[in-house]
């Protein structure tokens, strides 16, 4: 793992490789932070953003994505609106966590640009097909758009480098005792993605719960100008709820961890596992059943994150936000 102490950005930028990425999001406070991190990271070229219903309905997730990108002056990034509902189920949303707008507690100006005429799946296909290098997909919401894209454009799989997703858990869930929210909302889509044969990194609750923002982190964010102030407001919105439920007012920035793992893979310790998605049982719907010790004897289909290097993660976050136009 690398450290940011004593790191010389000029020398690093000369040697770095820029990775083309597409973010599929359902903003959501932590999705908003993930978007800003991705746009500020010089290691990433954000080719497009697609939206999906999840934390709130699609019209709100799309508006929120446009507002965040407008805030940071990235009207050049096309935004495609995607699925309004899961593949086979009614939509479950999370206004109890993110508020009615999905970004309650933060005042953002009206978007300065509009959605792309192409929907999410068509935009995704155009970006992947046109890229001279394989594209990394970073979904931070339900996997409905990704599953639909894989079903409709199987020929383009060869130009996807990997999928680094925020979702799932080896241990307890956050929506039911067994299931994490993104996978719970559309388990059928998650099953399609994990059975796709593509390289997958699962960034689940086991590591994202380690990316907590306490007073020290919030204070550091507020030193980063207007963007840092907005980010601090985003990450502290749920502090009171987390204190009631978990006894701590330090909410994690779940989705940003997946983006940081593309910037610097060594931010995570991972282990190859077979991951199966439970779709049938109502008790365990959306559970990511992870074969940690290989007892099934099946070929692993994902690298599953086990540990987070917090110092490196927050170094990436602070530096990337500091790169944004204020």
TrEMBL record:
Q: Name one Pfam family in it.
A: IU_nuc_hydro
InterPro entries xrefs: I/U_nuclsd_hydro_CS, Inosine/uridine_hydrolase_dom, IUNH, Ribo_hydro-like
SUPFAM superfamilies membership: Nucleoside hydrolase (SSF53590)
Which EC number(s) are documented for this chain? Answer: 3.2.2.8
Any one Gene Ontology BP term: purine nucleoside catabolic process
Under which main EC class is this enzyme filed? hydrolase
Give the UniProt keywords, A-Z.
Glycosidase, Hydrolase
- Inosine/uridine-preferring nucleoside hydrolase domain segment(s): 21-314
Please give one Gene Ontology molecular function term for this protein. uridine nucleosidase activity
Gene Ontology terms: cellular component = cytosol
What PANTHER family does UniProt report for this protein, alphabetically? INOSINE-URIDINE PREFERRING NUCLEOSIDE HYDROLASE, URIDINE NUCLEOSIDASE
The protein, known as: Pyrimidine-specific ribonucleoside hydrolase RihB
Instruction: Tell me the organism.
Output: uncultured Rubrobacteraceae bacterium
């Amino acid at each position: 793992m690398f450290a940011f102490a004593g790191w010389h950005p000029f020398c690093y930028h000369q040697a770095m490789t820029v990775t083309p990425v597409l973010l599929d999001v359902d903003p959501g406070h932590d999705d908003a932070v993930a978007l800003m991190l991705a746009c500020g990271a010089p290691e990433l070229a954000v080719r497009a953003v697609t939206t999906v219903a999840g934390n709130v309905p699609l019209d709100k997730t799309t508006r929120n994505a446009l507002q965040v990108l407008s805030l940071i002056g990235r009207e050049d990034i096309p935004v495609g609106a995607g699925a309004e509902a899961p593949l086979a189920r009614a939509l479950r949303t999370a206004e109890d966590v993110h508020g009615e707008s999905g970004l309650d507690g933060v005042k953002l100006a009206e978007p300065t640009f509009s959605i792309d005429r192409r929907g999410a799946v068509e935009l995704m296909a155009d970006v992947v097909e046109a890229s001279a290098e394989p594209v990394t997909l970073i979904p931070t919401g339900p996997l409905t758009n990704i599953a639909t894209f894989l079903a409709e454009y199987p020929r383009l799989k060869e130009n996807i480098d990997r999928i680094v997703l925020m979702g799932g858990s080896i241990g307890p869930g956050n929506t039911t005792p067994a299931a994490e929210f993104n996978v719970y909302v559309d388990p059928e889509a998650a099953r399609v993605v994990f059975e796709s044969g593509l390289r997958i990194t699962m960034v689940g609750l086991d590591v994202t719960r380690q990316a907590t923002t306490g007073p020290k982190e919030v204070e550091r964010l507020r030193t980063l100008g207007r963007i840092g102030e907005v980010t601090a407001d985003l990450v502290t919105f749920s502090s009171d709820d987390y204190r009631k439920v978990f006894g701590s007012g330090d909410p994690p920035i779940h989705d940003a961890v997946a983006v940081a793992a593309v910037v610097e893979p060594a931010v995570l310790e991972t282990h190859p596992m077979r991951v199966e998605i439970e779709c049938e049982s109502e008790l365990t719907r959306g559970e990511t059943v992870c074969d940690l010790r290989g007892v099934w004897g099946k070929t692993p289909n994902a690298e599953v994150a086990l540990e987070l290097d917090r110092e490196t993660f927050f170094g990436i976050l602070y530096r990337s936000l500091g790169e944004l136009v204020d």
